[in-house]
Design a protein that fits this description.
Blueprint: H1 2-19, H2 36-43, E1 44-45, H3 51-61, E2 64-68, E3 71-78, E4 84-87, E5 90-91, H4 92-105
Parallel strand pairs: 1-2
Antiparallel strand pairs: 2-3, 3-4, 4-5
């Protein structure tokens, strides 16, 4: 009942503003059709099988999240055979060197 009364009051304000020619407020950020949960579902993979789909998603979203042995990798490029070419925008061998140094330091 409370929500109905609030909606009734809000609707009256909206109608009054429209009749007065109010244009509204322009959004400050570019919106997305997808929410955060949707984007996470679309961009997260445990196996690289549908190569064309993954390449299309990388083209749209910039990369995918690949989960292997409970570790997350941000894959930004794969080849036509499904082989990973870039992780976090680095070639794979450079990524491995950087991670080896981090592991060795700690």
């Amino acid at each position: 009942m409370l929500k109905t009364n609030l909606a009734k009051k809000s609707l009256k304000k909206v109608i009054d503003l429209v009749l007065k020619g109010y244009k509204g407020i322009i959004p400050s950020k570019k919106g997305s059709y997808y929410g955060k949960k949707d984007i996470k579902k679309i961009t997260t993979f445990k196996k690289i099988k549908k190569i064309k789909l993954i390449k299309k998603i990388i083209g749209i979203w910039g990369g995918i999240i690949y989960i292997k042995k409970n570790k997350k990798f941000y894959i930004t490029k794969i080849n036509n055979y499904g082989r990973i070419c870039r992780i976090n925008y680095y070639p794979v061998f450079i990524f491995n060197i950087l991670n080896f140094q981090k592991f060795y330091r700690s």
